[in-house]
Design goal:
Helix 11 (257-268) crosses helix 12. 44% of the residues are buried. The chain has 525 residues and is mainly α. Residues 81-140 have low confidence and may be disordered. 60% of the residues lie in helices and 0% in strands. The chain has helices spanning 6-16, 20-32, 40-52, 56-67, 153-161, 165-177, 185-197, 201-213, 221-233, 237-249, 257-268, 273-285, 293-305, 309-321, 329-341, 345-357, 365-377, 381-393, 401-413, 417-429, 437-449, 453-465, 473-484, 491-503, 508-520.
Length: 525
């Protein structure tokens, strides 16, 4: 029998001890089929046990499951020693809006062959793309503790007068947030400094954050580093992570991924999720440490289990590609969905592509369009473009050329080269918009400068024939040569033919200058 994954064993052990958080986590694993065989009955059992102890996440999830038609009213026996009793929730409450439309069978669209006309192009295939690791920055309010407590300024001020460091930090928090006292960042700063100088680790961390973000004081990387290091040296995991992050980015100090990795490791050893994620990224890239994809997978997995959307996304990429672990597109899709639900735009885009391709889960064009729309609403230019393609073709959405044009335009303005090309093609042909050769030329040029081979070819043709601008053989030769060097067939072959034809009417010195210009750019600019 295969050995149960360690994370499942750990959650199961704690769940059997009536830990409500572990019961929720275990139930969610069974619901998703993540690291265990999917079992909705077992999921309901553990979620109900967690909900009875007041776990709000379990309550919300059960309500959603009930709204989705899953029977959650079954008898579930309590375990011995139940900590608290919470009345059985009513599942008839309105469920939160579903994160994606229900699956539907959609026939695959056959690929369109590349047209032979000079300015025609087939719809590009959907491709999953690796997204660069986002920079890890301090949270908007990293000092927020989370729990709501009654603020008693009088008692706290009395504690400050007696030199109690915890009172200084607590009163500083109150002034920073404006709870129980008027909001006063300078007073918060003074109190944090008083606690920090007395050696209090929370005071040191809080003071560092104020300098880091420039709250109540002029922003100072040097002083932020100083106080992060004071707190980090005392073992504060959040300070160790922030210190490592500043060193990694070279903020206030020479950038050193190797030194950053040491601080990340100290924080990661304490279970700090952000540090686990950051350290995993260093092992994945070999930046500051010896590259080790297996170690990256392990660190990403720990951070992903802690809810880090970025780690869920990066781990999904590695599972999909089989890097550092066996390829597992099903688990990759589950992780992407979890990151997408947390609002990570890159995950929403990739999850849409997996739904569209039927990779790791059932093909579903409607759900794919839903997630593309989520990413597009966040301004992702690739999602805007792909959603435009769907509206143009009627894939998973109602066919709407006007909406397609608007989305292409938004994506093109945001810098998506393929959108710039497609929009240029629409202006060139007059399909769905008034014909405008000058605008087509401008858009083709933007896409060509970004490396789009078809745009380079079309740009060369337009300069050679004087469409959208005055005829310019030198410019035409340059762009056709770049298209020919692209290696994209049949574009490269057509471009070579175009160059041969063009050179029959160009003087030798003009040809030599065009080739020198190409050589200066390395031939593949």
């Amino acid at each position: 029998m295969a050995r149960e994954p360690e994370i499942v064993t750990r959650y199961r052990r704690l769940a059997l001890e009536n830990d409500p958080v572990a019961q929720f986590k275990l139930g969610d694993l069974y619901r998703l089929g993540y690291q265990v065989k999917r079992d909705m009955d077992e999921a309901v059992v553990w979620l109900v046990r967690s909900a009875r102890q007041g776990n709000q996440d379990a309550l919300a999830l059960l309500k959603k499951m009930a709204a989705d038609g899953i029977d959650v009213r079954r008898r579930v026996d309590d375990l011995p020693g139940l900590r608290h009793f919470v009345p059985r929730p009513e599942w008839s409450d309105p469920a939160p809006e579903a994160s994606a439309p229900p699956p539907a069978a959609v026939a695959p669209t056959p690929p369109t062959p590349l047209a032979s006309a000079p300015v025609a192009v087939a719809e590009p295939p959907l491709r999953l793309r690796i997204i660069a690791l986002p920079e890890v920055e301090p949270e908007p309010d990293p000092l927020h503790i989370g729990e709501e407590e009654e603020i008693d300024p009088v008692s706290l001020k009395d504690g400050v007068e007696k030199g109690i460091a915890s009172a200084m930090v607590a009163l500083g928090n109150a002034y920073r947030e404006g709870k129980g006292v008027p909001r006063d960042l300078k007073e918060a700063m003074r109190l944090y400094a008083q606690a920090a100088k007395s050696g209090d680790v929370r005071g040191q961390f809080s003071l560092a954050v104020m300098y880091d973000l420039g709250l109540g004081v002029a922003q100072s990387n040097a002083l932020a580093l100083k106080w992060y290091k004071e707190a980090a040296t005392q073992g504060d995991a959040a300070a160790q992570f922030n210190l490592g992050n500043m060193i990694r980015l070279g903020r206030g100090v020479e950038a050193s991924p190797a030194i950053a990795a040491k601080w990340f490791k100290q924080a990661a050893d304490q279970g700090d999720v952000a540090a686990l994620f950051a350290l995993g990224s260093l092992y994945e890239t070999g930046d500051g440490v010896e590259r080790n994809e297996e170690q990256a997978v392990e660190l990403y997995r720990q951070a992903a289990e802690g809810g880090a959307a970025g780690a869920q996304f990066n781990l999904s990429n590695m599972l999909r590609q089989g890097r550092g672990t066996e390829a597992d597109p099903t688990e990759a899709a589950v992780l992407l969905r979890r990151a997408a639900e947390q609002g990570l735009t890159a995950a929403q885009f990739n999850y849409a592509l997996m739904l569209s391709a039927g990779l790791g889960l059932s093909k579903n064009d409607e759900a794919a369009a839903h997630w593309l729309r989520r990413a597009a609403d966040a301004g992702d230019p690739r999602a805007l473009y792909q959603l435009g393609v769907r509206h143009e073709k009627g894939r998973g959405v109602r066919r709407d050329p006007a909406t397609a044009f608007r989305l292409y335009k938004q994506a093109a303005e945001a810098g998506d080269a393929q959108a710039q090309y497609d929009l240029g093609l629409m202006y060139y042909t007059g399909e769905g918009v008034g014909r405008d050769e000058a605008e087509a030329l401008r858009l083709f040029r933007s896409a060509a400068e970004a490396g789009n081979a078809l745009a380079r070819y079309n740009l060369g043709v337009m300069y050679a024939t004087g469409q959208g601008a005055a005829s310019d053989d030198s410019e035409a030769h340059y762009w056709l040569a770049l298209a020919a060097a692209s290696g994209v067939d049949p574009v490269a072959a057509s471009a070579r033919n175009g160059i041969e034809s063009l050179e029959t009417r160009m003087p030798a010195d003009a040809i030599a200058k065009a080739k020198d210009r190409l050589g200066a750019k390395g031939g593949t600019a």
